Amino acid sequence: MSDVRVRYAPSPTGFLHIGGLRTALYNYLFARHHDGKLILRVEDTDRSRFVEGAVEDFSRMLEWAGIVVDEGPTQGGNYGPYYQSQRLNLYEQYADQLLKEGKAYRCFCSSERLDQMRKFQEKSKLPPKYDRLCLRLSQAEVDENLSKKMPYTIRLRVPDDTTVKFHDLIRGEVEFSTFNVDDQVLVKSDGFPTYHLANVVDDHHMLITHVIRGEEWVSSTPKHVLLYQYFGWELPLFAHLPLLLNSDRSKMSKRQGDVEARAYPPKGYLKEALVNFIALLGWNPGDEREIFTMEELIREFSLERIHKAGAVFSVEKLNWINTQHIRRKTNDEIYDLLKPELANAGLNSFSKEYVLSAIGLMKERINFISELISFSGYFFEDPKSFDATGIRKRFNQQTKSHLQELLNRLSTIDEFSVPRIEAVYRDYADEASIKASELIHPTRLAVSGVTLGPGLFELMEILGQKTVLRRMQAVIDHFDRIIKEASTTA
Ligand code: GLU
To answer: Ligand 1 centre from 204 Cα, in Å?
Structure first.
């Protein structure tokens, strides 16, 4: 396929949704796969719905996700400007052409009249369509209205009794009877084009070869096809992506969980994970593989493997994918991601070597980088509290003397390494004729405050002798208080 040019064409009427991110991603994967170009076009002709900060939001999110735009507002390109609000002359010229050729007409109906008409149609179960009152105006009437400076819109003249057909790369042949197609407003009374006119004119002028967009645009496509025919332009190929569904199969745009893409980075999702997860919302490689880097996605992606059925957004799946991508990272890469989080938590006094060994021990156990701090904060801070259930279960009258004896022995080891620490525990358990677990569980609680974690001896080696002894001593010193607190805490 030569000279593939696709576009992501968001309207800045809100912040980037997960669905928008998917559309952008699929366009990007398709463009890269075919050595083509991705164009970013800002469809900002609806001034009343313009949201401040939206353009910045989606630019930032695309960049974060690693979706590289070839032509666009900041990238430039030969087919700009890439803001529709800066291309109004072009749309006006084409609207005039349609009027002259009788393929569009002026509509002077007031919004009150249109409202009444709509209510009547609803009551009588008629299709919601303009009733064409103004199509029947004579040229003299039109001229008179114009001389009176009556506001008007320009509507598409949809042919009667025809079928509009187009081929959708995902859905196959799609047909619409023009009986069900409205005489779409192409230019509003403020002179701004609607999405439909601007979108078609721009796709043509920007040499777009494939229109890849959400399913919600299928019903607009016959209007677009008519416009292409009226202008005598070649149609691009269309591919309408499946709906995104919540886990209860309701439409995802109906707010449930987070639909805005910007919510995900601060939650600790890796960009690789979010991109991988979103790529699978409607597409699959045709086999069991589920974990992909962007490069792998580019290589594998094809429109043929996009399915029609709605795609369910599952946070559990996203979390699982995040875990898989953490495991694929090197310790150094995780360190770079963790560093700012440590700084935020005021924990920047640790050497890189120390943090790397903590990462090495925990990498297989975390779902989010931040869990290195939230679940295993004991690497960085002495425990401030102790798991009450654990203390009730593992601490008894002998625990204090056991801890004291272990502390004495541990303080004499010259090399604080796993085998030496382990030997201390084994020897003491033998001598005291108790199970090693009676020593291990209380020690884990003493040094980490919690009952779960990596292998205790590995943990102790990384924490280091000084820290381990200090923490054990603190528990011995406050032994009665810790037991008492645990007995009164749920
Ligand atoms: N501006 C439309 C949107 O916000 C673009 C739809 C299309 O890609 O044609 O989704």
So the answer is: 15
Rounded Cα distance, 374 and 268, in Å: 12
Q: For the chain, which domains are there?
A: 87-241 (3.40.50.620), 382-487 (1.10.10.350)
Pocket of ligand 1 contains residue 192 by CB under 6 Å: no
Under 8 Å between Cβ of 66 and 33: no
Kindly report the pTM of this predicted structure.
Answer: 0.89
Distance 41 CA to ligand 1 centre (A): 9
User: Which member of 254, 267, 329, 400 is catalytic?
Assistant: 254
- As a whole number of angstroms, the distance between CA 345 and CA 340 comes to 9
pLDDT over threshold 60, residue 75: yes
Please determine, for residue 212, whether its predicted confidence score (pLDDT) is greater than 60: yes
Q: What is the mean pLDDT of the chain?
A: 95
| pLDDT one-digit tens code per residue, 456-482 | 999 999 999 999 999 999 999 999 999
**Catalytic site residue 254?**
yes
- C-beta 202 within 6 A of ligand 1: no
Q: Which helix (H) or strand (E) holds 360?
A: helix 352-362
